[in-house]
Amino acid sequence: MGLTCADVMVPPENQKTIHPDASVATAFNMIKSSRARFLPVVDDDGRYVGVFSAPTLLKMILPKAATIDMGSNAFSGKLDNLKFFSLSKEDFIAQLERLKDETVRENMSRPENIPIAAPDTPVMEGIFLIYKYKRHVMLVEPKTGRFVGTVSANSLLDQVLGSTEIPE
Predict the structure, then answer these.
(1) Using an 8 Å Cβ cutoff, are 107 and 128 in contact?
(2) What is the pLDDT of residue 75?
(3) Contact 34, 16 (CB under 8 A)
(4) Distance between alpha carbon 78 and the CA centroid of its chain, in Å?
(5) Angle, CA 21 vertex, CA 17 and CA 25 arms, to 5°
(6) H-only helix segments in 35-86
(7) Chain-centre distance of CA 65, in angstroms?
(8) β-pairing, 116-117 with 48-53?
(9) Residue 83, SS3 per DSSP
(10) HSE of 50 in the Cβ direction (CA atoms, 13 Å)?
(11) What's the pTM value of the predicted model, to 2 decimals?
């Protein structure tokens, strides 16, 4: 039998997770200290709920006008740049301070943007999902909905190839 996603995953004990009712400030601190790009969101029973990501965190700091789609013609829509907008370190800290009142649940990434697979999914399908979505794959047990781990390009290369190098 071929490799499965479970064979190449980052196991849950090595993958930081966060509760949906945690504050965004807590998520920020976890992302900052671990240098993670995302945190799987897991409830009290270990069930996968979603993902909170560093790009979502950055989006929360942007002015609303930069993130709202106001139409589809050439003269409306999102702002093209924010060169006119300045942000001091104090402003940045003030923006972050308000995040303690926001919850992870209210600010998770949209589920349709997050690839999910079962642990026994063939690794080739996992590779395809990483390529298609340009992000990690969340491994979720189909019967229970429990979070099992993640598959990334790095975990795949680390688990399958280990210290193997390609001659140059």
Answers:
(1) no
(2) 47
(3) yes
(4) 23
(5) 75
(6) 54-61, 64-67
(7) 23
(8) unpaired
(9) coil
(10) 16
(11) 0.81
